[in-house]
Amino acid sequence: MLTVRRVQLWLPPLLYMALIFYLSAQSNPLPALTTRLWDKGLHTVEYGVLGLLVCHAVLGEGLTGVKAVLIAVVVASAYGASDEWHQAYVPLRSSDVRDWVADTTGSILGAGVLFLQRWLVQKATEPNH
Fold this sequence. Notes:
Blueprint: H1 4-24, H2 31-34, H3 39-60, H4 65-87, H5 97-125
Helix pairs in contact: 1-3, 1-4, 3-4, 3-5, 4-5
């Protein structure tokens, strides 16, 4: 059942995925940025955000710990693979397995940072025994 809570959880990663698709469909997206920064770094940051957003949604669905991180990484990494496949059909773009590796690395970092932040907050708020 689609609830307001679910929309709040899943709308951000879905909109972000749509933005990634839109930019990937461009032959030369954001040239002022892409000509100055390392391509793999951009992929890592881009998919770090996606990994974080998906992990937040999965945690909000009630999954916990490493399971939530793994699901977020699998979803973001699969989306990265589909994005690379998509780019193979865009003029002046190419599909590169190293970009997918950077996407996956970013998703691990993003989901991991969110998990670590929540774990640290939980530990800080637990009463001392």
